């Protein structure tokens, strides 16, 4: 979701999916000043036993802004993203990233899996992608698309 859509995130959804009042209430309880970090959204997903994409949908429907992407791609104030290209990308990491590509992109979920498998920080994987010119998409919470969550 673009910055220009702030306050109108729900408009990107077709209206076919119903809002779960319990999920919306949980988001309102956990959000701070109409914002929720990526990490908090994922914790809430686990707590409520629902997919991250469902949390993203409800973030949009409650006009809650998603912040502080754990891959460093958005939600960090005026700079927006904090990830910088890695100085070097090791052969093992490069191979793991390239093996996980779908349509030339690395999904957020796959980036997390690569980080976990190699014992790296999520930000290390996104920094490698920046260096290699690989776009990370889709977001597990639906940022960067018409069907997911808002981003800052």
Walk me through what this model shows:
Helices cover 41% and strands 4% of the residues. The chain is mostly helical and 152 residues long. It has a domain at 3-79. The chain has a two-stranded parallel ribbon with strand order 1-2. The longest helix has 11 residues, at 38-48. The radius of gyration is 16 Å and the shape is elongated. The model is unreliable at 146-152 (pLDDT under 50).
Biggest sheet: strand arrangement:
1-2
Number of strands: 2
CA-based shape: elongated
Strand content: under 5%
Low-confidence parts lasting 5 or more residues at pLDDT below 50? 146-152
Provide the residue-averaged pLDDT. Answer: 89
Count of alpha/pi helices: 6
Structural class: mainly alpha
Measured as a percent range, the helix fraction is 40-55%
Overview features:
single chain; 152 residues; mainly alpha; 4% strand; disordered C terminus
Give a short overview.
By secondary structure, the protein is mainly α. The chain contains six helices and two strands, in the order αβααβααα.
